[in-house]
């Protein structure tokens, strides 16, 4: 069996993930932008990372702000903060991303980060030409219900690449679950921030580095 495509999560796989403090500050900025000057620390944390639609609606009800307008503001401030940090040297690309040049399979990205952030990362790190498709989230509440471990964006990437068999590389349990639900293989990459993580699900492969892709059955290497 050979894969029709190889897909990648972005943060923690291709580039270093943003520090939680950066996302928390961006969330506080989002509250300020809609006129909420003194949100509770718990509510700032709730919309910083791992946001659920129900929790978002609860927070918006507490401060009497419109859900979709607030979420668009939050996603914009989170994206702007990450892009500004990247331009100062944050979100560096992992060295082993260089191995993607040696892969012959069509490549794609499926990320829970904002589409605007993914587009900026690809441009900043000169990765555009490597990937035939790249899916982040649009700034909608509906996107929260579709993010991994739901396979929605993986399915869209597979359709873009006309791929039936594929490998998805991620750094979280939700990545492995999303791949399983999409009916494709998964590889869990043990970056430093997840080196000791014990998963409750079993990926198809466990990788130390993207260089390990060279050794996987089904991955096609470009001819020299």
Question: What does this entry look like structurally?
Answer:
Helix content is 38%, strand content 13%. The model has no long low-confidence stretch (mean pLDDT 96). The longest helix has 21 residues. It has two domains: 138 residues, Rossmann fold (3-Layer(aba) Sandwich), CATH 3.40.50; 68 residues. The protein is of the alpha/beta class.
**What fraction of the residues are assigned to beta strands by DSSP?**
5-15%
Q: Strand arrangement, largest sheet?
A: 3-2-1-4-5-6
Proportion of residues in helical segments: 25-40%
CATH superfamily grouping of the largest domain:
HAD superfamily/HAD-like
Quickly count the helices: 8
Q: Summed up, what is this model?
A:
The chain is built from eight helices and six strands, in the order E-H-H-H-H-E-H-E-H-H-E-H-E-E. It is an alpha/beta fold and 224 residues long. It folds into two domains: 5-17 and 91-215, Rossmann fold, CATH 3.40.50.1000; 20-87.
């Amino acid at each position: 069996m050979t894969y029709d495509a190889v897909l990648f999560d972005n943060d923690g796989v291709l580039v270093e993930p943003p520090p939680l403090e950066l996302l928390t500050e961006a969330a506080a900025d989002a509250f300020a932008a809609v006129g909420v000057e003194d949100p509770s620390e718990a509510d700032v944390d709730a919309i910083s990372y791992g946001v659920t639609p129900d929790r978002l609606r609860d927070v918006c009800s507490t401060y009497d702000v419109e859900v979709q307008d607030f979420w668009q503001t939050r996603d914009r401030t989170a994206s702007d903060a990450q892009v500004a940090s990247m331009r100062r040297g944050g979100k560096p690309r992992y060295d082993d991303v260089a191995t993607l040049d040696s892969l012959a399979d069509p490549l794609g990205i499926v990320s829970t980060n904002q589409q605007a952030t993914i587009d900026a990362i690809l441009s900043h790190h000169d990765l555009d030409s490597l990937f035939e498709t790249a899916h982040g989230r649009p700034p909608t509440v509906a996107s929260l219900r579709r993010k991994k471990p739901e396979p929605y964006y993986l399915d869209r990437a597979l359709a873009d690449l006309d791929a039936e068999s594929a490998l998805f590389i991620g750094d979280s349990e939700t990545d492995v679950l999303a791949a399983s639900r999409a009916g494709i293989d998964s590889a869990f990459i043990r970056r430093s921030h997840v080196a000791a993580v014990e998963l409750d699900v079993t990926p198809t492969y466990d990788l130390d580095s993207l260089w390990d892709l060279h050794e996987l059955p089904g991955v096609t290497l470009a001819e020299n």
